# Entry
Amino acid sequence: MNVEFINPFLTSLLNVTSTMAMMELTPGKPQLKGHDIAKGDISGLIGMVGQQTKGSMSITFEEGLILEVMNKMLGEKPSNINEEVSDLVGEITNMVTGGAKNLLGEKGYNFDMATPVVVAGKNHTIAHKSKGKKLLVPFTHESGNAYIEICFEDT
Amino acid sequence: MNVEFINPFLTSLLNVTSTMAMMELTPGKPQLKGHDIAKGDISGLIGMVGQQTKGSMSITFEEGLILEVMNKMLGEKPSNINEEVSDLVGEITNMVTGGAKNLLGEKGYNFDMATPVVVAGKNHTIAHKSKGKKLLVPFTHESGNAYIEICFEDT
# Structure
């Protein structure tokens, strides 16, 4: 996998949060997964399968951030993560992956998306089990952090 | 999705745990997801994509059960969930889905598997975001419970 393949996911998340929630997240430097691990309170995960590749993507949010996204998008701020927040994370996962799929398709890198799964639980960690490189981008915002992680392996 | 499609996953998990860990899990009744939710301490998730379908599968374990599986398979029982346990859950996820894929393929229901992702965190919950039916099977064992959940939707 090319290290640049993380960028369409990064761009796509920034687009989704800025257009839908009017929030500007600050992306950190894309990195090969090493010290940093994706850790948060709610995550959207999705599988991707193409003819020459397969992989997985996760977006992980700290509670403070996703509740603020909910507030900015829907005008209501629940006191904690509930089913509506979970549905929102599922939608964001689909939108971000769909956006990245289009950008990567233009470069001749094609895959189909599975359906998303959302995991909720205080301080959970995510580990992608793939033979390929694992790429991570941290995002910061005054209300909390987020992480995107992807990996693809050749089939 | 046919409700019977959960059975190959159920069979496949029982095969894996009985042959590799010499442990007999007791499956509960397969059910459309309603009251029960998959809740546990470590989960393996995987996406599935076929020409006419896409979906997701999760296996969720309570800590006591997965540590006992680890003990029976590798002769060592860590005091809590660590990276080796996480790798084991990734392997089990691949094996169970691979086994179910073969069984479903014999019935003409074909899909490709993405790569698994493992989530660790006390008492997390899993929500599959799919338009299709969500099917769940609980498993019990004296050392803890497990859940398989799958959903497929037509593309």
